[in-house]
Specification:
- The protein is α/β, with parallel strands linked by helices and 359 residues long.
- The chain has one domain: TIM Barrel (Alpha-Beta Barrel).
- It is built from 17 helices and twelve strands.
- Strands 1-2-3-6-7-10-11-12 form an eight-stranded parallel beta barrel, surrounded by seven helices. A two-stranded antiparallel ribbon has the order 4-5. Strands 8-9 form a two-stranded antiparallel ribbon.
- The radius of gyration is 19 Å and the shape is globular.
- The mean pLDDT is 96.
- InterPro entries: Aldolase_TIM, DeoC/FbaB/LacD_aldolase, DeoC/FbaB_aldolase, FbaB-like.
- Keywords: Lyase, Schiff base.
- This is fructose-bisphosphate aldolase.
Length: 359
């Protein structure tokens, strides 16, 4: 296990005015004693009792013992599927060397990540050199924006069988919960995950909301704790081994949508969450079967100068909530490689720090 390079002074500098509310918050909603928390023994303590095969457990263990966070139970994953999701130009024009998959793998390895997640094309281009040395996660479906007018749907680009053949340790997929296409996507992804497990690979679900109705009265409830929590719950139900979710920024999505949409409980808002972002993220963890499916939050788009501070803030919230790590792409690869490596290390330093504890 690597040593943290993040000093207390640097951490407080990055968190700024939120230092007190984030580092000293005590969660009084769902007690951490009820959670299945990350740790070096997570596979033996939590996963070994599941229906996952020995090969799935071995691949999960391999990922947990790779990179700078090896032996901690936490994940730092580099995802690069944005060339399809956002276009190659929008993704790689800031740093064109990353049109070459070899450079992306180098960023993941030198950046100390546990694994690299990308498209079947990217993985296939370098699989014989890297797939036996470093955990690959093949993203099976994508939303592409070359259809006119633009549509927002997830299309299967690859199969679990193909991912297995090139040596992947795991597969990933996205479901747009709340969209008109979500029922079809749930069936497609559930079947793909079942096949992946049969072939010995673990599964990661990009567990996103997508419906214009979720933006109401100037508030974007795509990132509400209650709606994203339910998406996590469905994702865990189709046996995603790891849930990837956006960090919650608000709450009350169900209430805003009105009585004709879904079902919730007032206890969620009165007792089980507060306005503190750690408690909102804790609700996401709770919906992942109280942490049986590890929650990794996404790093979000690159904002430039504030990227490191934003990434460290997200990592602190995720770790203190009982989450299991961060999956950050654009903030890392839309800058020179040495700076991207430094950003990934800053994220990992939060999980290596003894000063950042579960609230």
């Amino acid at each position: 296990m690597a040593a943290t390079e993040m000093t207390s002074t640097r951490l407080e500098e990055l968190l700024g005015d939120e230092t007190e509310s984030l580092l000293n918050h005590v969660c009084s909603t769902v007690d951490k004693a009820n959670l299945h928390l990350p740790g070096p023994d997570f596979v033996d303590r939590v996963m070994v009792d599941t229906d996952r095969s020995t090969n799935v457990l071995r691949n999960l263990q391999w990922m947990l013992h790779s990179g700078r966070l090896a032996g901690t139970g936490y994940y730092s994953i580099l995802p690069v599927d944005q060339g399809i999701e956002h276009s190659g130009a929008a993704s790689f024009a800031p740093n064109p060397i990353y049109f070459d998959p070899e450079n992306l793998v180098e960023l993941a390895v030198e950046g100390g990540c546990n694994a690299f997640a990308s498209t079947i094309g990217v993985m296939g281009a370098v699989s014989r050199k890297w797939a036996h040395k470093f955990p690959f996660i093949v993203k099976l479906n994508h939303n592409q924006l070359l259809t006119y007018p633009n549509q927002f749907d997830q299309t299967m680009f690859a199969t679990a069988q193909r991912a297995h053949e090139l040596g992947a340790a795991g597969v990933g997929a996205t479901i747009y919960f709340g969209s008109e296409e979500s029922n079809r996507q749930i069936v497609e992804v559930a079947r793909a995950f079942e096949e992946a497990h049969r072939l010995g690979m673990f599964t990661v679900l990009w567990c996103y909301l997508r419906n214009p109705a979720f933006k109401k009265d100037g508030v974007d409830y795509h990132v509400s704790a209650d709606l994203t929590g339910q998406a996590n719950h469905i994702g865990t139900t189709i046996e995603a081994d790891i849930i990837k979710q956006k960090l919650p920024e608000n709450n009350g999505g169900y209430l805003a949508m009105g009585k004709d949409f879904g079902k919730t409980s007032q206890l969620v808002y009165d007792k089980l969450t507060t306005d503190n972002p750690i408690d909102l993220c804790r609700w996401q963890v709770v919906n992942c079967y109280l942490g049986r499916a590890p929650l990794i939050n996404s790093g979000g788009a690159s904002s430039g100068q504030t990227d490191v501070a934003e990434a460290v803030r997200t990592a602190v919230i995720n770790k203190r909530a009982g989450g299991s790590g961060l999956i950050s792409g654009r903030k890392a690869f839309q800058r020179p490689m040495d700076e991207g490596i430094g950003l990934l290390h800053a994220i990992q330093d939060v999980y290596l720090s003894d000063e950042v504890t579960v609230a």
